[in-house]
Structure to design on (572 residues):
């Protein structure tokens, strides 16, 4: 159905392009926007515009940032000898929330997936290797997701980084915190054993 | 675990369905196409989050926009838990109690249900895929991590196959480099799968033999053997797989396909020293399938400490009356829901079974009614 107002039609059209939003949801959003005060709508529009104008990728770690390099890369208190490699900016957020990690990051922008047409050349792999050649980095922690693509990406990175003589680790998977060993199944135990650490 | 109640609306052939099974043996009779199998599928849906025939959309009664199935399970320790599945044409929501599950996989294994029906003949007589599926089904109910590993393995396989197809014309050295991470993934996941399959077949062997002997009334020498597509090297499946992928590279490159790995494993079933699939009679095949299912139930009960519910579709076909009786006696005091189109035979068999027995009739358009014994 087409509306009598081209402006409504255009707004619906634009909103329904967003992921997870179909035409029906877009209609609901548009009618909601028509009801709220104009300042609120302007603020929304402005925030979206600013988003694109201000936010960019950090030229060092490729996290999202307004200042380049990003606050983490510039922070003198952070340990510059360790880099944690993640798939997405969201993953940086998750790790930062733990408050346990004081090193730097490198955001790949995804994981290897031929089915999605993503190879190493589509990820920030070359940039990572360049960072490692500076000589300052002594350890790389690979924190890609524990699924097929994340694992393959970790394996790929390992092959690339090992010859550089840098210490390489993978975040552990295995026994969930708070659960008992006797209730863990064989596969979980096998994986946990594989990822065991020195004491 | 026992099912206390199943309630459904607009599901398959039913407008409304209410089924309150007894804690023991439930015999469900009805004519062909009356909805017997649909009743089993309603139960299956609440245990696995999907039906066992066709797509989710097929679960809706024709012409309806939404359907639901709700199951009340009493699990070990006497706790009652409810699973509710809401179906629409394109979406599905699964909730356990008040908690909505993020994905179907979170449901699998929580409420152990084992199903057997005519399609199980594929395990005895079909290609290796059906036998792998049997093993994976058992291992999956024992360990969600196994299912996750299997999913990752199959995903890595798909990724690797795509590279092999797409890069058929490319420089071999470049292809080798490209597929390397996926080869290593297959080795990592695959070796875990192989080790678990080998162990489980070892544990199944005696149980299957015992159940087969019970049902057949004689020991006919049934035997299981896990035949991995790639054998372990000095006890290590990882080493075996790595070596095999090394040998196969040229061939895989030419064919554009992964040619080795646990996705090609076989479970060899023999009766009296010959392969069941090729030389077994239909009666032997049916007996073997039921023995495999009963062994599966027993293993889950032992390892999980929770006895599964057994669903038997059209249980008496291809089984003489004495074997049928022995099957129903072999299940002991498990909760069983068994369907049949042959009411006379069911009444006959029932006489030879002890314990709690309920008899139900399904009629098209009328739902499920308990009938007198």
């Amino acid at each position: 159905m087409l509306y009598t107002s081209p402006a409504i039609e255009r707004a619906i059209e634009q909103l329904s392009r967003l992921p997870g939003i179909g035409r029906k949801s877009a209609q609901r959003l548009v009618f909601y926007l028509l009801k709220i005060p104009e300042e609120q709508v302007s603020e929304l529009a402005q925030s979206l515009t600013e988003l694109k104008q201000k936010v960019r990728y950090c030229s060092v770690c490729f996290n999202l940032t307004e200042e380049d390099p990003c606050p983490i890369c510039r922070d003198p208190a952070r340990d510059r000898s360790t880099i944690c490699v993640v798939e997405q900016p969201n993953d940086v957020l998750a790790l930062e929330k733990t408050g346990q990690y004081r090193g730097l990051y490198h955001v790949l922008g995804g994981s290897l997936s031929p089915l999605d047409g993503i190879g190493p050349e589509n990820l920030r792999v070359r940039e990572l290797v360049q960072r490692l050649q500076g000589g300052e980095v002594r350890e790389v922690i690979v924190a890609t997701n524990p699924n097929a693509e994340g694992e393959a990406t970790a394996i790929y990175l390992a092959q690339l980084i090992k010859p550089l003589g840098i210490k390489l680790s993978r975040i552990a998977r295995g026994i969930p915190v708070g659960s008992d060993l006797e209730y863990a199944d064989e596969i979980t135990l096998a994986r946990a054993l594989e990822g065991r650490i020195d004491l | 675990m026992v099912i206390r109640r199943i309630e459904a609306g607009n599901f398959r052939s039913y407008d409304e369905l209410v089924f309150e099974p007894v804690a023991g043996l439930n015999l469900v009779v009805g004519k062909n196409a009356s909805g017997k199998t649909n009743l089993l599928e309603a139960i299956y849906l609440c245990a696995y989050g999907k039906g066992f025939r066709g797509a989710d959309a097929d679960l809706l009664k024709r012409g309806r926009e939404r359907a639901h199935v709700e199951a009340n399970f009493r699990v070990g320790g006497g706790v009652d838990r409810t699973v509710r599945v809401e179906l629409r044409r394109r979406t599905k929501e699964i909730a356990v109690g008040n908690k909505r599950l993020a994905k179907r996989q979170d449901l699998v294994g929580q409420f152990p249900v084992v199903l057997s029906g005519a399609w199980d003949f594929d395990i005895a007589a079909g290609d290796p895929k059906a036998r792998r599926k049997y093993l994976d089904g058992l291992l999956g109910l024992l360990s969600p991590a196994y299912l996750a590993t299997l999913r990752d393995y199959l995903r890595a396989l798909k990724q690797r196959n795509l590279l092999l197809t797409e890069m058929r014309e490319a420089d071999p050295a470049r292809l080798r480099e490209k597929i390397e991470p996926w080869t290593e993934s297959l080795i990592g996941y695959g070796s875990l799968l192989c080790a678990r399959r080998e162990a489980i077949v070892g544990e199944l062997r005696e149980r299957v033999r015992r159940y087969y002997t019970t049902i057949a009334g004689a020991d006919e020498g049934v035997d299981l053997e896990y035949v991995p597509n790639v054998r372990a090297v000095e006890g290590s499946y990882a080493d075996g797989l790595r070596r095999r992928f090394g040998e196969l590279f040229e061939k895989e490159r030419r064919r554009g396909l992964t040619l080795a790995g646990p996705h090609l494993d076989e479970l060899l079933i023999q009766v009296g020293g010959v392969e069941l699939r090729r030389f077994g009679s239909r009666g032997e095949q049916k007996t073997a399938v039921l023995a495999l299912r009963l062994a599966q139930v027993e293993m889950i009960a032992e390892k999980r400490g929770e006895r599964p519910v057994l669903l038997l579709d059209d249980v008496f076909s291809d089984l003489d009356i004495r074997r049928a009786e022995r099957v129903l006696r072999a299940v002991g005091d498990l909760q069983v829901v068994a369907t049949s189109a042959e009411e006379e035979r069911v009444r006959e068999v029932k006489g030879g079974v002890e314990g709690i027995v309920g008899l139900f009739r399904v009629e098209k358009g009328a739902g499920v009614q308990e009938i007198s014994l």
Notes: The first helix of chain B runs from residue 36 to 48. The CA atoms of residues 204 and 299 of chain B lie 8 Å apart. Chain B has a mean pLDDT of 93.
